[in-house]
Amino acid sequence: MELDIVKASQADSKTFVNLRDVDRSATIGQIKQMICKQKPALYPERIALRTEVKGKSLSDSMQLSKLELNKGKELYFKDLGPQVGWSTVFLAEYAGPLFCYMITYWRPAIFYGPDAASKPYHYAVNIAAACWVFHYVKRILETLFVHRFSHATMPMANLFKNCSYYWGFAFFVGYYVNHPLYTPASFKDPQIYAGLLGFLFSELGNFSIHVALRNLRPPGTTERKIPRPTSNPFTLLFNFVSCPNYTYEIAAWMSFSLMTQALPALLFTLAGGGQMVLWALGKHRNYRKEFPNYPRGRKSIIPFVI
């Protein structure tokens, strides 16, 4: 069959790429490879193909024979722009905050004055630094050894946006928590240690969910299954919400905010929590759309609420 590839932004203009002798059993991934042969400046991860101008991008595994193509057998092309691997993105996102926070922990004179580093640290400051380092080292190790990504790449522009968010907040939180004039929690030890226990509990829960999600997806595939509790008690939260990893993540930063009693830490928690709620709502909708037998009683991120 003959297939015309038309730019979605110029749907009424001439054909962008014309493909001849295309087998109807060909997949979208194979079509992308054919396009790249005619347009060497492109690569498959940069290409999105749709059956409608503003439709949903087709998965690489989709076969042409299963599509209802428009008149003249057209697919609409969108250039996603320069791409970068997800692992690279996450490593940059998580390594940056680690170093940014520790720079403020060392109290450089340029930020705090020449004598700041010699002033004593409240033990809560040291605990907060240890928790911060633990969290981001955990995230880096999960990126390297746990996560299996459904998409190989993301737009390069997102790398700068995400890094600005994580790195900027790391400096913001670190500057105030590590300041020589930092005032510890109002209720002293009970508040500090309650926050620490909540943080560690939530981090362990978050890790448990990531492992459970990893085991749902066979290596090298993008297969999706309904997540369910495993023998690990931390995964029981799957009975109530679709994205317990976000639930535990928000709980961890709420605990960190309680422990440090620092407004920047709370703002970081609220900003991140708001974004995670949006992500969870989207994933919850996708689960319900994809799986007719998806548990009806589950919420997206907060049990019984949302």
Automatic annotation (TrEMBL):
Q: What Gene Ontology terms for biological process does this UniProt record contain?
A: very long-chain fatty acid biosynthetic process
> Which catalysed reactions does the entry list for this protein?
a very-long-chain 2,3-saturated fatty acyl-CoA + NADP(+) = a very-long-chain (2E)-enoyl-CoA + NADPH + H(+)
GO: which molecular function terms?
very-long-chain enoyl-CoA reductase activity
State its Enzyme Commission number(s).
Answer: 1.3.1.93
| Record-annotated Ubiquitin-like domain positions | 1-77
> What family does this chain come from, according to its entry?
Belongs to the steroid 5-alpha reductase family.
**InterPro entries of this UniProt entry?**
3-oxo-5_a-steroid_4-DH_C (IPR001104), SRD5A/TECR (IPR039357), TECR-like_N (IPR049127), Ubiquitin-like_dom (IPR000626), Ubiquitin-like_domsf (IPR029071)
Q: What class of enzyme is it?
A: oxidoreductase
**Pathway of action:** Lipid metabolism; fatty acid biosynthesis
Q: How does it sit in the membrane?
A: Multi-pass membrane protein
PROSITE patterns with a match to the protein in the record: S5A_REDUCTASE (PS50244), UBIQUITIN_2 (PS50053)
Organism for this UniProt entry: Aceria tosichella
According to its UniProt entry, what is the function of this protein? Answer: Catalyzes the last of the four reactions of the long-chain fatty acids elongation cycle. This endoplasmic reticulum-bound enzymatic process, allows the addition of 2 carbons to the chain of long- and very long-chain fatty acids/VLCFAs per cycle. This enzyme reduces the trans-2,3-enoyl-CoA fatty acid intermediate to an acyl-CoA that can be further elongated by entering a new cycle of elongation. Thereby, it participates in the production of VLCFAs of different chain lengths that are involved in multiple biological processes as precursors of membrane lipids and lipid mediators.
- Taxonomic classification: Eukaryota, Metazoa, Ecdysozoa, Arthropoda, Chelicerata
- The entry's protein name is very-long-chain enoyl-CoA reductase
Major localization listed first in the record, in broad terms: endoplasmic reticulum
Kindly state one GO CC term assigned in the UniProt record: endoplasmic reticulum membrane
